[in-house]
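Ops channel
N.P.: pipeline sanity check, posting one input/output pair.
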């Protein structure tokens, strides 16, 4: 057997004091690394606006109403986020601008188009249903309205004699019409 020319090394005969010295040195290195941090990054990121786009204006869209020679008129409007995407939609109540009587209303949902102006994405009430809209609101992701109608064709168009409270909410990719709990007496 050949003997080593190097004297015995201290680590071959380790004592608890050696382990304590090693642990203390490691703790000092970790603490120093925690105190010495690199400078903050200076690369710039493009600024992305977090402000929501304004709700669509019904004046910027042609509403799908057939009014003959008369103009269409928006009688009520309200905005809110109806589909939960973070962007507001506008709900517009519109009718033909007739000279007398109570022309039937329509309720349209408008959204902002991609790079285009506002567009109609849903019709909640068709004029063919021959109803007008009384109370109307957009709250908590729902559209509520009081619809006024007629019990028979003999009722004068000036004086609706039926009233129905309704609510529309976005569910499963479409607007679902229900009767609100307060209208059912619940």
């Amino acid at each position: 057997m050949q003997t080593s020319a190097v004297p015995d090394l201290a680590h071959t005969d380790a004592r608890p004091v050696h382990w304590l010295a090693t642990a203390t040195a490691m703790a000092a290195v970790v603490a120093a690394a925690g105190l010495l941090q690199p400078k903050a990054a200076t690369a710039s990121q493009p600024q992305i606006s977090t402000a929501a786009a304004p709700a669509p204006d019904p004046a910027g869209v042609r509403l799908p109403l057939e009014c003959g020679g008369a103009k269409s008129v928006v009688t009520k409007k309200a905005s809110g986020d109806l589909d939960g995407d973070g962007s507001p939609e506008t709900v517009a109540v519109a009718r033909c601008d007739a000279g007398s009587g109570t022309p039937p209303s329509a309720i349209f949902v408008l959204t902002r188009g991609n790079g285009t102006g506002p567009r109609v994405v849903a019709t909640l009430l068709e004029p063919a249903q021959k109803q007008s809209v009384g109370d109307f609101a957009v709250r908590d992701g729902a559209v509520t309205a009081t619809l006024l109608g007629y019990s028979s064709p003999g009722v004068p168009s000036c004086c609706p004699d039926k009233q129905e409270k309704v609510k529309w909410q976005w569910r499963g990719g479409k607007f679902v019409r229900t009767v609100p709990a307060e209208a059912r007496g619940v």
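N.P.: looks fine end to end. The chain has a mean pLDDT of 82.
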